[in-house]
Amino acid sequence: MPVRFTMHLPRARTAIRAGVDAFLRAAADAYRSALLTKYGEHRGGYTSGEYATGATVQSIQASEPYAADSGGRAIAVFTDDVVAVYWTLGFQHAGANGQYHRVDHWSPAMLDSADDQFTRGAKAAREAFDASGQ
Questions:
Q1: What backbone phi and psi angles, to 5 degrees, belong to 100?
Q2: 93: number of CA atoms within 13 Å, CB side?
Q3: How far apart are CA 115 and CA 23, in angstroms?
Q4: 124: which residues sit within 8 A by CB, 6+ positions away?
Q5: Could you tell me if 7 and 134 are in contact, meaning their C-beta atoms sit under 8 angstroms apart?
Q6: Is 53 in contact with 60 (CB distance < 8 Å)?
Q7: pTM, to two decimals
Q8: Which one, 8, 17, 36, 104, has least CB within 10 Å?
Q9: CA 93-87-30 angle, 5° bins
Q10: Residue 67 backbone zone (phi > 0: left; psi -120 to 50: alpha; other: beta)
């Protein structure tokens, strides 16, 4: 006897979107956790942590999933702290005889947490799909 497979297309689309969004949120959370760990290694700062105020660590956020220009879904992990931008891109420090400083925590944290991002994302997506009943 043949097995009949039926799926309600609007419910399937909703379930897929919920799964993708759950994946993105979980992956962003893993990346954000890796960033907090990186900054924590320097007591919330970039080098010695001597001048760290914690503002950068507190400013790391993740957006809600959104429709990307490519037609897929995306999420952003970001900071609105300009100090983090200067340290990541590099700057000439006037107080240190014009020395160039650059310490990028963002790229290494992204790479270091890639496996964790995928693992957490896959688990969250599976839970969302299971909850949808599809």
A1: -85, 130
A2: 11
A3: 13
A4: 22, 23, 25, 26
A5: yes
A6: no
A7: 0.81
A8: 8
A9: 165
A10: beta
